[in-house]
Design goal:
The chain starts with 8 loop residues before the first strand and ends with a helix. Helix 6 packs across helix 7 and helix 6 runs antiparallel to helix 8. The chain is globular, with a radius of gyration of 24 Å. It is of the alpha+beta class and about 475 residues long.
């Protein structure tokens, strides 16, 4: 597919401390080229939940405006939105169904009916089933299959991971996006988006825990044997660390945030005991000297609490000793110095930093080599997964576009002609090799996203338009 036929997909990450909008398009090598980038301070959002609609709308508009300013030729109408927050919950269930067409092989319709049965699962009042993720299938109580289609059997069963959330909280996020004159193509669970951006095929096979340390919450997604095993939201993250510093050292919130970012260390033993930070006094009060060692102790205490929750969740699913891929830390909170060492000490597993650079084209890696952008890059990858699997059509639907000047249009036509000439000279064997590499890489994302059978947006199809205004 030529570059001009690839859609422009925009990821919108609405966080507690920041709102990020990134526009991207895949090139001929299957890598993402970043066409626009915008970031603004988040207001009206607390721990992933919208608390003030108007403030949240302004934050989104500022991020979109900055994205458009970074590329004036860009026009944004549609976005993929990340969703997280304390209201997100998950539970494990098992479902079985006796087939009526026993002489025929198991097909997609049998699987779909089994999944639809799980929507009858009891959940607390006010919650909504967001997604149902099938894990391992069994046919006539035999084996654990990832895909039973084509097999024969009377009874088909499966283990399911059900993700739920508060309906009003999800509706408020969509309302904010709608009032910014944007169309939310889909709402994607943030830890799954981050996982797509930082994981590779080896991670999916070995088993990893993605720990996304954001501003308001820490999100977890655990993968084992190639499938999603567990998701969790830990209600502590960067904002809690900042508040601990503010209360423990008696400084302003802005000063606490700056100290955390500039001098923060997650492992107190690595902090310089002889280093001090000078804080200006308020309204003529004397300056305050703060020990870097004391700052590190405050940060380590909260980070250790977050990691204790991570271990707790892993023990709940009996995977605390079986994840050979270890822990992948991502999100803005993963930028703390020595956080890898602290994670390995607390969990007893290997750890590494997850940076969304594997899917980016050259020239953009340095600018976005930051774990805080993992979710946004993953949202773009989710959009391309839908596009490449025919689930969403982008062409001729008034989607995101980029307007070219006459000179750029002529150059694009010239480059396209030259590319076609080069492609004609490429041997058939090299073309097959390139196609196979792209197929294997896309298969990893397909396995990750295909488990998500339902669309978050479908929850709002039955809501009257007048209710949303």
């Amino acid at each position: 597919m030529s570059k001009k036929e690839q859609p422009i997909i925009v990821g919108l990450d609405i966080g507690t401390t920041k709102v990020v909008a990134i526009a991207g398009r895949k090139n001929e090598y299957g890598k993402l080229e970043i066409l626009g980038f915008g970031q603004s301070e988040s207001a009206g959002v607390s721990h992933g939940v919208v608390m003030n609609i108007e403030q949240c709308i302004r934050s989104i508009e500022q991020a979109i405006e900055k994205c458009l300013l970074s590329n004036p030729q860009l026009e944004i109408k549609e976005v993929y939105v990340g969703i997280a927050g304390q209201h997100i919950k998950s539970l494990q269930t098992r479902g079985e169904r006796v087939r009526t067409r026993v002489d025929e092989e198991i097909d997609k319709e049998d699987i779909d009916m089994l999944i639809r049965d799980q929507y009858k699962t009891y959940i607390p009042a006010g919650d909504q089933i967001i997604d149902i993720v099938p894990q391992e299938y069994a046919v006539d109580n035999n084996g654990a299959f990832l895909d039973p289609i084509g097999m024969s059997g009377i009874k088909i069963g499966a283990n399911f991971h059900i993700i739920t959330g508060d309906r009003n909280a999800i509706r408020n996020i969509k309302r904010c996006v709608d009032k910014c004159s944007l169309n939310a193509r889909d709402l994607v669970l943030q830890p799954l988006a981050s996982a797509a951006a930082v994981m590779n095929e080896e991670d999916l096979e070995a088993g990893v825990a993605i720990v996304d340390i954001g501003g308001g919450t820490t999100d977890m997604a655990v993968f084992f044997d190639g499938v999603l095993k567990h998701t969790a939201v830990i209600p502590y993250a960067g904002v809690n660390i900042t508040n601990d510093i503010r209360n423990g050292l008696g400084v302003l919130r802005a000063q606490a945030e700056q100290m955390k970012v500039q001098f923060g260390v997650a492992l107190a033993d690595e902090a310089n005991a002889n280093a001090y930070i000078t804080i200006p006094g308020l309204r003529g009060l004397p300056h305050k000297e703060i020990s870097v060692k004391n700052l590190a102790h405050i940060i380590q205490a909260r980070m250790q609490e977050i990691l204790d929750y991570v271990v707790y969740h892993l023990k709940q699913i009996n995977l605390d000793k079986r994840l050979y891929g270890g822990i992948i830390l991502t999100g803005g909170g993963a930028r703390l110095k020595h956080i890898i060492q602290l994670t390995e000490y607390v969990t007893g597993m290997g750890a590494r930093l997850g940076i969304p650079n594997e899917h980016l084209a050259g020239g953009h890696v340095d600018a976005l080599m930051n774990p805080m952008y993992s979710t946004c890059i993953g949202l773009i990858l989710r959009g391309y997964h839908d596009f490449e699997n025919g689930r969403l059509r982008f062409t001729s639907e008034g989607g995101n576009v980029i307007h070219l000047s006459k000179e750029e249009l002529q150059k694009a036509l010239s480059d396209n002609t030259a590319a076609q000439e080069v492609q004609a000279q490429t041997s058939e064997e090299e073309t097959e090799q390139t196609t196979e590499k792209r197929r294997k890489k896309n298969e990893n994302l397909k396995r990750l996203f295909d488990g998500l059978k339902g669309k978050f947006i479908s929850m709002f199809e039955d809501i009257d338009e007048t209710e949303m205004k």
